[in-house]
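fyi for ur records
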Amino acid sequence: MTFRCQNYINGQWLDAITSDTLESRNPANTEELVATFPRSNSPDVNAAVAAARHAYQTWRQIPAPTRAEYIFKVGEILTQYKEELAQLISQEMGKPIAEARGDVQEGIDCAFYSAGEGRRLYGQTTPSEMPNKFAMTVRVPIGVCALITPWNFPVAIPCWKAMPALVCGNTVILKPAEDTPACATKLIEIFAAAGFPPGVVNLVHGVGEEVGKALVEHPDVDLVSFTGSSQTGAEVGGICGRSHKRVCLEMGGKNAQIVMEDADLELALEGAIWGAFGTTGQRCTATSRLILHRDIKEKFTQMLQSRASQLRLGAAIDPNTEIGPIINHRQLQQVRQYIDIAREEGAKVVMGGDIAREGELGKGYFFLPTILDGVTPGMRVAQEEIFGPVVAVMEVNDFAEAIAIINNTNYGLSSSIYTRDINRAFAAIRDIEAGITYINGPTIGAEVHLPFGGVKRTGNGHREAGSTALDIFTEWKTVYVDFSGSLQRAQIDNRS
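which gave:
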């Protein structure tokens, strides 16, 4: 059965004004049509923004604990439809079913966490420098928020953005990736079932260069929250900067796992396998580099190759599948091109390195789990995000060299070190340039109540998830209450 997607604007399900449609196909079997969805354009965006702008005037005045009850209801409904939505994620995006269930669970966790913030949204009180005067700060919503989300976490990431935005009193317009329109539609159906007033939650499908661009440039959009490539993020940030629009960017990563000579190698191996090949390497936190101490490098590389060779490729819906497909043909070819680049630069392909074409795999976009050895810091495969099941092995002589190499990229999202030395562990926490550092754990595994984001070209200083998300979706207002009954002049010398 093909899923027919529509836009959701002002509480109504609508086709694009032009009636143009696009297709979404199963990346594990491109013969299978999963969904059709509207190819929206500026008129559809204008309608969604107008609806969100109108709804904002009343939504922002609803008490935050009441707004939170809507989010809590979303969490309850998500729980009821968890398996159905997970199956859809596996079918449309290609994520193995166990991971797909985790994707939905993250949305559920985010709902209940965000709902709790509705009874906090803390400001601060502080003493005034003058008598009979009270000073405090409060959070106020920003307005209409455009949420531009990727395909690799088609439920979790929209929830990360929409739920705190709504609790804070904003209205939202979701523009999902073209590769996962059915997942977005089902998610917004759940938001609609929670009973949000018309215009508070909106969905507009389409192509990034058309719908995404129109949202970013729209004068009545107050905030853009974008997750995607660093190149596109830089363009989004530039447009928002010129129009003085609030913008939150969560972009790429070139994450690394350090394995020192004293590490528990079996534990480090499990971390490397999960970090490098989980979600087929299609995570911004994926382990793209393995930095190995020279004393264990040969042994660990052999262990890695042996374990990776046992990974099972297949359709994501099969519970035995460990590696699903690449999302689309363009991304598949990009991963393949990076293997050619690695060879040209002198790296050695010790495993994989090609598109998987055998049997049923030939119907989809499958790439063999790949290990590159002999990688040096200046190579492109050590610097650029590949976004596929490819890991680059790099050898170091000591801890200091490992830290220097892990920091030698333009990105700084996630990082990991395996060591039994507590002193090294704390030195790594201090010295690694990344927004996230794991000790004796893989580079993937974020939790919704902790800040998520990175440094350098990974983002623009904001953090998603946790209480820090409130700083994205609110403005601080400072309030002074003078009950002295007379004029008190601040910011001049009152003591002379």
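The first helix runs from residue 42 to 59. thats all i got for now
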